[in-house]
Amino acid sequence: MGDRFWGVLRYCVIFHDLGKAHREFQQLLKRLPDQWKLQRHELFSLPFVDALDMDAERKAIMRLVIAGHHKDFSTLRTYLQYYDAGESFGMLEGIDEESKSFEQQFEEKVDVALIKELLREYDITIRTVSSETGVYSLVHGYNKMPVYPSENRYYTLMMLFGGLKWCDHLGSALVENVPVLEAEDFQFLTQQQSELREQGLDFYTHQQQCAITEGNLILTAPTGSGKTESAMLWLQKQLKITGQGRVFYILPFTASINAMYERLNKAIGPEKEKVGMLHGKLNDYLNNYFDDLQYDVTTKKESIKNIRERYRSILPPVKVTTPFQLLKHLFGIKGYEQGFFEMAGSYLIFDEIHAYSPDVFAQIKVLLELAVKHLHAKVMIMTATMPRFLQKELENSIGVFCMVKADAALYKSFRRHKVVLQEGLLSNYLDKIKEQLKAGKKILVVCNTVKSSQYAYKELKRVAQKSVLLHGSFTGHDRSLKEKDLLEEDIQLLVGTQAIEVSLDIDYDMIYSEPAPIDALIQRFGRVNRKRLNGICDCVVFIESNEEDQYIYNSLTVEKTIKALETIVVESQGIIDESLLQKAIDEVYDSWVEEDRKEFEERYRYLKEALAMLAPMFANKHTEEDFYKQFDGIKILPQSQRQDFVHHLQAFDFINAESRKVQIRKGRFISWLQSQYIKKDTFAFEKGKKVNTVPYYITNKVYTSELGLLSDEEDPWESDNIF
Fold first, then answer.
1. pLDDT in tens, 601-652
2. How far apart are CA 675 and CA 670, in angstroms?
3. What is the DSSP letter of 184?
4. Does 201 lie in the same domain as 239?
5. What secondary structure letter does DSSP report for 429?
6. Is there a single domain that holds both residue 406 and residue 290?
């Protein structure tokens, strides 16, 4: 459709609600007695589309877009029973045998002259309006033959539908202006460069290269070398060359998303409201944000709701998010057409792309192929560490690209870590770690399991001035508070699991880590001597694994990692030259682990096949279920949190109530359910004249805000009402 797209979208926006002129619908809006029953106003807009002086191709697409803009076509079909009760779709409540045909309804109930007068205000003149518009054949026909990606009009239909939905939502919200990024929004980069030059410095070479690169880019640079600034410099260049587009800054973990949102929002200017954030734990973060403002519960609930809706809309030009908020559109989750529309012409910035499992990496590859080839998105991929074979997959998915790598001098200046391989288990070395704490060292301890981290923390906190434990078995409420605590300078000890591998802006003097794959270890090391102010700092890695570690990491990969580290110890006395890390990574990950390769290929093939069957305005429950199956987690309520949970529910504060739950793996959930450590409960409350129930799962496993959920300890059940 080319340049005509926006003109056709304008027509769709103007015409999509004309059917609301139906007399009975107007009665409904005025809360007067009506005979509207189970009709659809969008269908009564179609005769006006047919009366346009426009070529048949554009009108055919407009008809589909307008007819399906509220109900998908499989659902819309059932509403035709109002007019053709003889069809065997199963009767809908409220339909009687005396229902008039669509044509009769239109001729008797729609004031055509009034609509023509309205359209003239938009400089639109239509021809004779006929009720013989083929509503039945349109709806039934699309159900039999939806538009799939193999058809030329597929993306035109997808974009028009997505565009209409966004316009409809923004119009309903009375939004008059959609903000965009402007030159002044990058002023913080200019200021930062000026400050560097005053010190006789400048942006790093790789940052300057990113600032002049047009099109897709892959950046490799050490942790702490300004990759975020690199991304914004690249983005600034793209906007100058290509023009406006939504920006997605994509990170794997919620903690790093919170931190990046704060960073970008502060840099661009919070008052501009140009940075949004979206991930599964958004409610927890926003709740704590408003706690700081000391709003009352009612105001807080309303404010969070408003902000969340704004972040979900098209308004902020920059969104910090997880990949799943984009991947879900490929699975046909409700609203995916709007997702496609928003991704069209967008800028996708992937940070820490090495951190994904094979199945998620496969989905990201499909996303990149779609976004670059069909949606004309521009992509920047950033990493400190990535095996060659994974990088090759990314290169193949984005087509033409520029490779930028930090220069040798920078890598040399980033010699800040010395790997020390230690025999035995970390749990048997705690007395030595206590000595370092007593000496005033700021220490990071990373374990592979929650249980191991809890044990280490209980032992070490006794001698630490101020300490924090961070892992995945805390409630959302407590986890958010702990992430906030970590920003304080006086935290001497942080004990955690791989949850701390994310890009939190924390800096420690040394690290003690249980054995893990080399890419995970490098990320952990990146939290030590981050600002390079302390010369060379020790990164102690224990050689022996706990028995439970085999369920967290591939044993062969960990063995190969230890061998690669042994080589660094022998050849460089343990001093890590970050320019040579790629060699070590490729030794560990010389190719796919067979199990991972199979998982990658199966997920890639599945999603490609699912995309080929994804039709606009057509629900696909099968792929939607498959999307949600990949999340191995179920939320349960610790019994000790029940009083707070109920208190918040009684105040209709559902967000705070949900933040009192802990997420556990499905396998553990089933095991605890069978062992009676988890039971089902229901909270009933009355709202208006209706009694509502909130079912939830509760556990008698011990939970404390300091240690989290203790898998080996239980409390007696407190209530006989739980079943």
1. 999 999 999 999 999 998 777 777 788 777 768 999 999 999 999 999 888 8
2. 9
3. G
4. yes
5. -
6. yes
